[in-house]
Write a structure and sequence with these properties.
This protein is of the alpha+beta class. It folds into two domains: about 1-115, Nuclear Transport Factor 2, Chain: A, CATH 3.10.450; about 120-255. Helix content is about 60%, strand content about 10%. It has helices at about 1-20, 25-35, 40-45, 50-55, 65-70, 110-115, 120-155, 160-170, 180-200, 210-240; strands at about 75-80, 85-90, 95-100, 100-105. It has a four-stranded antiparallel sheet with strand order 1-2-3-4, with helices on one face. Strand 1 (about 75-80) and strand 2 (about 85-90) form a beta hairpin. Helix 7 (about 120-155) runs antiparallel to helix 10 and helix 8 runs antiparallel to helix 9 (about 180-200). About 25% of the residues are buried.
């Protein structure tokens, strides 16, 4: 009976180890160990040639975020080709190789840096979005002031009225997700066109506030362009499920203007 139980335990251990040796599970286990600053455990998931890369890291600091969320574990996929495999999603790509009947992560200095700076990249994306949102909302405030001013003069044109309606429908949502963020940005682009159409020269521009609004909108537009460029750069780096890059605005095509 004891012999049977011993064989059962050995067999259970063998199959349990085998079940946890898939490329995706190995990659996830390595990231978790790295995030908890467990150098010994992290090294155990690395290929023999990769351990030297980890050894070069003088310190291994515990990361503040959740690896499951930061690296979007739920969306990771694995591709196996013989003795090599790749685990990836939009956030990260991890190569693996089979050694001693198990999968091991092939760690490069680039991959090490990517994992190590993940939380910083996500934080930078959030900060830059918050700044861009602030600039969008500041311009909306100028637009509302302009509409009120035109109404007070009794010179609210149809285009200015359209701008007012668009302002009412383009407010920032309470809950942010990828879809609501992109929809909000799309409304901001419509708002840009509506502002350009609503700004009308005045015969008394030198004595009323028309020129003042032209200048305020121009300055707001410059700040938005700079904030968009900064956000785009951080979003492209972060690969966040929420703070996604803006469509049609690649970072290398946006020029940040000096304040």
């Amino acid at each position: 009976m004891k012999k049977f139980l011993l064989l059962f335990v050995i067999a259970s251990t063998f199959f349990a180890c085998k079940e946890t040796s898939s490329p995706k599970e190995t990659a996830q286990a390595f990231i978790k160990a790295f995030y908890s600053a467990d150098r010994t455990s992290a090294a155990g998931y690395l290929s023999n040639d990769s351990k030297a890369v980890l050894d070069k890291a003088e310190t291994l600091d515990q990361q503040p975020g959740s690896p499951e969320e930061s690296f979007q574990f739920a969306t990771l996929t694995e591709t196996v080709s013989g003795e090599t495999a790749t685990v990836k999603n939009e956030a990260i790509t991890i190569p693996l190789v089979k050694e001693n009947e198990g999968w091991k992560v092939v760690l490069t200095e680039g991959l090490l840096t990517e994992i190590r700076t993940r939380e910083e990249a996500l934080s930078d994306a959030k900060k830059s979005w918050d700044n861009l949102l602030k600039e969008y909302e500041a311009r909306a405030g100028v637009a509302r002031d302009y509409i009120k001013y035109r109404k007070s003069l009794g010179t609210l044109s149809p285009k200015a009225a359209t701008l007012g309606s668009l302002l009412d429908s383009s407010a920032a949502p309470k809950d942010w997700n990828k879809a609501s963020l992109l929809a909000y940005v799309q409304n901001q682009e419509k708002l840009t066109a509506a502002i350009d159409g609503a700004l009308e020269p005045s015969q008394t521009a030198n004595t009323d506030l028309t020129m003042n609004y032209f200048l305020r909108f121009s300055n707001a537009g410059d700040r938005i362009k700079a904030a968009e460029a900064a956000y785009q750069a951080t979003a492209e780096k972060a690969h966040s499920p929420l703070y996604v890059p803006l469509p049609g605005k690649a970072a290398n095509s946006l020029q940040v203007k000096a304040d």
